[in-house]
Specification:
4 helices; Aspartate Aminotransferase, domain 1; alpha+beta; 119 residues; 5 strands
Amino acid sequence: MNISTRDKVNDFLSDIQSISSEQFDLLIAIRDIFIRSNEELVEDIKYGGLVFNVSDALIGGIYSYKKHVSIEFSNGADFIDNDSILEGGGKKRRHLQIYENDDIVQKNVEYFVSQAVNN
């Protein structure tokens, strides 16, 4: 696990790990995809989850729930999603619900993160 330069991010990750090792493993795998996708990415804690900003613009976040991890994309409605994998019907935001490690590949998380950080 990459240690964050922000104490509140490290505290958040430690809290998740102490509550659920399964949720922690999913969150770390998804976080690593975000971190690898853009070296200018800045992570923070907001709205009860781990959020990511590029050039001071919120691009998305990861939120841990009892039975799944949700990946939220701020401008997900603008993404190319030919297989209609993204969920949600708001004007801008879309999300993916991740229940297990296989979902990360099956739901094309890297593809959507790439769109989020490069839009």
